Amino acid sequence: MIMLYGSQQDYDVLAGKDADGKPAWAAQDVARMHEFMGAWNQGLVESGEFVDAQGLTAPVHARRIRLQDGVPVVTDGPYPETQEVLAGYTVVECESFDRATEIAAHLANTPRPEGAALEHEWYVDVRPIADSHAELEL
User: Fold this and answer.
1) Are 10 and 123 contacting, i.e. CB atoms less than 8 angstroms apart?
2) Residue 117: which residues within 8 A CB-CB, separation 6 or more?
3) CA 36 from centroid of its chain's CA atoms
4) What global pTM score does this model have?
């Protein structure tokens, strides 16, 4: 599974707002990014490695449930703008973990507006999906 991360601020920037509420990404920049992701997914479909992919809504729509003194406590999003959360995922079935890493590395070429700096270090995680309870153990 290839897991992509983002923050509420990242979602805001893609929606055309920066930290000051000013436009950040033009519609054509967002369209270029979506086209890139569509082509990346289509390449995986054509290679037979694609299993599933989903984007998740912004953190403002999230709920976090944690245990406090043995009782579940629910916190509604949004979380601090800089706190990263899972933004989406892609599941691939391929020959090796190295191949999955190679597939994920292509995401480093995701287009962004010219001169746009990343708010945080870019990364995705690649992790195998456990097929059995035994695979959950170290």
Assistant:
1) no
2) none
3) 14
4) 0.83
Residue with tokens 């245990």: 67
Question: DSSP label at 16?
Answer: T
Sign of CA dihedral 78, 79, 83, 88: negative
124, 5 in Cβ contact below 8 A? yes
**What is the structure's pLDDT at 52?**
96
Smallest Cα–Cα separation from 15: which of 29, 1, 32? 29
Instruction: For the beta carbon of residue 129, count every other beta carbon within 10 angstroms.
Output: 9
CA dihedral 92, 10, 110, 55 (to 10 degrees): 30
Q: With DSSP H G I counted as helix, E B as strand and the rest as coil, what are the percentages for the chain, rounded to 5?
A: 35, 25, 40
33 membership: H or E segment, kind and range: helix 27-47
Handedness of CA 26, 27, 32, 34 (dihedral sign): positive
**pLDDT, tens digit, for every residue of 62-80?**
898 999 999 999 988 877 7
